[in-house]
# Entry
Amino acid sequence: MPELPEVETVRRGLAPVLEGRVITHVQLNRPNLRFPFAPDFAARIEGQRIEKLSRRAKFLQADLTSGERLFMHLGMSGRFILGGASLGEFTHAHDANPKHHHVIFMTEDDNTVTYNDPRRFGFMELVGFGEPYRLDDLGPEPLSNHFSAPDLRARLKGKKSPIKIALLDQKIVAGLGNIYVCEALFRAGISPARGAGRLTVAETETLVRHIKEVLVEAIAAGGSSLRDHRQADGALGYFQKTFAVYGREGETCVTCDAPILRKVQGGRSTFYCRACQR
# Structure
């Protein structure tokens, strides 16, 4: 499933086409994705200008002139495809099967943005002005100034769960996923099994620094193209070529001769080096 760097990469690709543009037409080719669309979904968006396209955790957020917010989640296989003035110009772009083109947005300057999702695990939800949403109680963004060593240490205080599990808790820090937590813990030299509340001040500072570094590097690389992820222009990300531990079970550690191990934590595969991570 796309993580923060993949979603941020998609946002950066869509922003020049959508920010500041009026959505003149919304075409729904099915009544639902993971969840049903609101009955008036298209009507509430048509004629509205997207004032800002941002990201919160692993969600895209489009702020409309009406005051409503459109939240979009890519699920497991969702992607946005940029096209020209007519659908025919891009129906076969990026190996995307046209039968999975579920939502098409057309802007005032005749650009089209198509949401393609073979597995339909993604979703889009409109939230009215002032209405609460599922993202309101999330933790700080890991690339923001609000995410710091003192803040993380305070959030982890007293927690007995493994640090790997704690970092995947979106109420502790928003947007972190399995891939980049594995990589950050390796860089920080911290075992994924360590008790979250037992990290020292120095270890927490090191961990925060490496979380930020690995995310910045992944965004610069266009994310990690595992299975279905592509950028909005169809390009593949390549950060997976620099993985130190993720997906490398049985291979030699990049800093020592020990093998990379895999264990299951919280239903997710954790990759780590027992010699380097304590």
Observations:
- The first helix runs from residue 4 to 18.
- Residues 85-93, 225-229 have pLDDT under 50 and may be disordered.
- The two ends are 28 Å apart (CA to CA).
